[in-house]
Design goal:
α2 crosses α3 (110-127) and α7 (206-223) packs parallel to α8. The protein is globular and about 70 Å long. It contains 15 helices and 16 strands. The two termini are 37 Å apart. The strands form three sheets. A seven-stranded mixed beta sheet has the order 3-2-1-4-14-15-16. Strands 8-9-10-11-12-13 form a six-stranded parallel beta sheet. It is 32% helix and 23% strand. By secondary structure, the protein is of the alpha/beta class. The protein has helices spanning 40-43, 82-91, 110-127, 169-173, 188-193, 200-203, 206-223, 235-246, 257-261, 264-269, 286-297, 313-317, 329-338, 343-360, 427-431; strands at 3-11, 16-24, 30-35, 48-59, 61-66, 94-99, 130-133, 135-137, 150-153, 180-184, 226-229, 251-255, 303-304, 379-390, 409-419, 422-423.
């Protein structure tokens, strides 16, 4: 059995230590993890040795919230497709991701879901990135037999899969007891009441998210399903979630980089007319951003998820909401660490928790999220503080061709990405 070794500062949710990760070259499985470095006499036992003594080695980052608009309709060829999303993910240190179901042909039953699964096979083979998918819950839909998470848009979304009125939500959701359901929490009633506002942020006020989270928690308790809040953006919404969890309800949440970094002021300061920072739910006030950041820092939010959007600059000119962020996942994590987030918290929210999620909704028997024997040698290696990294367009792999973080200088970057033990160091990073 041919074996290889990766050495460096290994980051786990419980500890950080200098050590080595041994893995089987053929299967990509970790076979041993040990403290310390390899002696010259031990080195001869390995096919390859990758030494990263000055870098942090994490279980591979996993993004549970990605939009890629390739679909069976063939209508979105200019949009981010699954292949380009996979390349952008790998470029940003992401070893696996889940795509959202708000496609022109949404996966709402077994046939449409399996058609989307088939679309991802080529991208998985060619990039090594593991790709899974949500299916959609829409008004009047019924559960079907599939090992996958569900997504419900409580307001309007692409693919016409959202609800038009708050009162329409419960009759459909009542059918999904025992399921895992991720929610885009914005109340359609509140948004309808504010539809005449001039600014995007005022059309979708804080109250829209808060009321939708209250409804989701009520329904989760009543119908016994697991509720997950996507792209949490408000301080009050965070408080509702923490209170529900304290009661023992199975409620989880994620926060996106843009809600941890930007505020509404950044959006209002935009002078280019491109609406680059327009997003749903919108950017909020500093008190919201600060509350989310502190909760994330304390490990109270389970996931960092990008809500990566497939929109081009032309789409943004026309008012599309959302922004591409897969390429910058790793660099953004270096910023989080520079702002005081413990790398061990990163290992839990970016690797361990989403690794459990991926393993739960996969049928291939692979395990992700920990650096232990029996887990995949899918790893993200970060360079912190040795070389600052400025985001420029030539670095990006996304088909969108732009980033909300362009010209922002992060304190570090992705040094290497291992996918099932295979070294996929990003050429783009190494050229900068």
């Amino acid at each position: 059995m041919a074996k290889s070794l990766i050495e460096g500062k290994i980051v786990a949710p419980e500890e950080i230590f200098l050590g080595g990760i041994e893995f089987d070259d053929e299967s990509g499985l970790i076979t041993d993890v040990r403290s310390g470095t390899t002696s010259p006499s031990q080195a001869k036992d390995y096919e390859h040795i990758f030494r990263y003594s000055d870098y942090l080695i994490f279980p591979g980052f996993i993004d549970i919230h990605v939009h890629a608009r390739e679909d069976t309709s063939g209508k979105n060829n200019y949009k981010e497709d699954i292949m380009t999303a996979a390349k952008a993910a790998r470029n940003g240190g992401v070893v696996a991701f889940f795509t959202m179901p708000n496609d022109p042909v949404p996966p709402v039953d077994l046939e449409t879901y399996l058609a989307k699964v088939e679309l991802s096979r080529k991208a998985m083979r060619e990039t090594g990135v593991n790709i899974r998918h949500y299916y959609a819950i829409m008004p009047g839909s019924k559960p079907f037999d599939v090992n996958a998470p569900a997504k419900s848009y409580l307001g309007h979304s692409t693919g016409n899969i959202g609800f038009e009125r708050d009162e329409d939500i419960e009759p459909t959701l009542s059918q999904y007891g025992g399921k895992f359901i991720a929610f885009h929490c914005e109340s359609p009633d509140v948004m309808a009441q504010h539809s005449n506002e001039l600014k995007h942020e005022d059309k979708r006020p804080r109250l829209a998210e808060i009321k939708a989270i209250e409804e989701m928690i009520y329904l989760a308790e009543k119908y016994d399903f697991e509720g997950h809040v996507c792209h949490l953006s408000t301080k009050k919404g965070l408080e509702l979630i923490l209170n529900a969890k304290a009661k023992g309800l199975p409620i989880t949440s994620e926060v996106a980089p843009h809600h941890l970094y930007f505020t509404r002021k950044y959006r209002e300061d935009e002078s280019n007319g491109l609406n680059l920072l327009q997003v749903n739910p919108p950017l909020r006030e500093e008190e919201d951003r600060k509350a989310l950041f502190e909760a994330f820092k304390e490990g109270k939010i389970e996931y960092l998820a990008t809500d990566h959007a497939p929109h081009t600059l032309e789409d943004k000119k026309k008012g599309a909401s959302g922004m591409p962020q897969l390429d910058t996942y790793g660099p953004f994590v270096t910023w989080l660490i520079s702002q005081g987030v413990d790398p061990k918290v990163i290992a839990r929210t970016c690797s361990y928790n989403p690794g459990l999620f991926l393993t739960r909704f996969s049928d291939d028997g692979k395990k992700y999220g920990k650096i232990e024997p029996g887990y995949q040698a899918s790893l993200t290696v970060l360079d912190i503080d040795r070389k600052k990294f400025k985001v420029e367009r030539e670095f990006l792999e996304t088909k969108c061709g732009w980033s909300p973080f362009e010209w922002i200088t992060f304190p570090g970057s992705v040094r290497a990405v291992f996918l099932d033990g295979r070294d996929h160091r990003s050429v783009n990073y190494l050229l900068h």
